[in-house]
Design goal:
- By secondary structure, the chain is an alpha+beta fold.
- It folds into two domains: about 160 residues, HIT family, subunit A; about 150 residues, HIT family, subunit A.
- Helices cover about 25% and strands about 20% of the residues.
- The chain is built from seven helices and 15 strands.
- The strands form two sheets. The chain has an eleven-stranded antiparallel β-sheet, sandwiched between helices. It has a four-stranded antiparallel β-sheet with strand order 2-1-7-6, with no helix packed on it.
- The chain is globular.
- The N terminus is likely disordered.
Length: about 350
Amino acid sequence: MADSKNPKFPSELRLDPVSQDWVLIATGRARRPETFQKERRSSKEDSALACPFEGLDEQEKPTAVFFNGKQVRIKQGSVPDSWSTVVIPNKYPAFSPVVSPRTRIIGPYETIEGVGFHEVIITKDHRKDIPQFTIAQVKELIDAYQERYLALMSEEFVNYIAIFKNKGEKAGATIVHPHSQLIATPVTAADIQRSMQGSKQYFARYSRCVHCDMIQWDLQEKQRIIFENDSFVALCPFASRVAFEVRVYPKEHLSYFEESTEEQKKRFAQALSVAMQKLFKGLNDPDYNYFIHTAPVDGGKHSYYHWHLEILPKTSTWAGFEISTGIEISTIEPEKAAAFLKKQ
């Protein structure tokens, strides 16, 4: 068995025994310390000619392919010429699939091998992204998210599936071509656990969903709403962590993103599309991260939770106060941010 100084697996999760945060150490992509010193600090080249997603022949075999809103049957593991959205395994995965992860105790510490799945969801156009998409194109992207979620959620060692998108260098994107990622992990991160625990405690006290109560309050006040349709609402949350943070919620109490119906996905696509267009226009195409928060797939019952999508524009950078306390500073009132975005 591998020791802590010479791990054999491509990555390992390490648990901080104080904060209970899991940290992934990408041992399979280990770098010498001096390489960080020599690393260039420049913008990524926005060239389709150098883009690894323009020629998918060199990528891993696809796990799902879509064309004009319909899933395409994959033949011989290749990507057909007619595709609009494709899902491929990450060529340099943070997590790798094996039968089951090994857990080790090293003194006061605990580690788990980085077992899981890491996939990339790619849309075809090198430059056009969600703000320029039709509702149908956004819905196809959501279909891809759901299809891969359903395909991986039953894997024995998967406890949580993260679906997220990094856009721009400030948000951590290393490739300009629009894409999202999906990572299925054997652990549920502390941030998710805190969100689940807060929701559970509120439900135990009031027999109601905390997210439903927040949504209803915001719908009545109308100060932080930037868009709504029959099924979804996009708003700047009362306690926004960053300037112009936006969340997209289903109005109905729904715990599991993967159970979304076709009609719900259409309404979700419209709300996400409008929210992204408003951020694009209002903030001049900002870098951002978005992610779906949904109930874990750990076998538990989480009916008290309410799934949603969070969009965090990179309007500022963490400094000493934020890093030392975990308290984030937002430089604009959510009410003013919402009023501004609503006009876009």
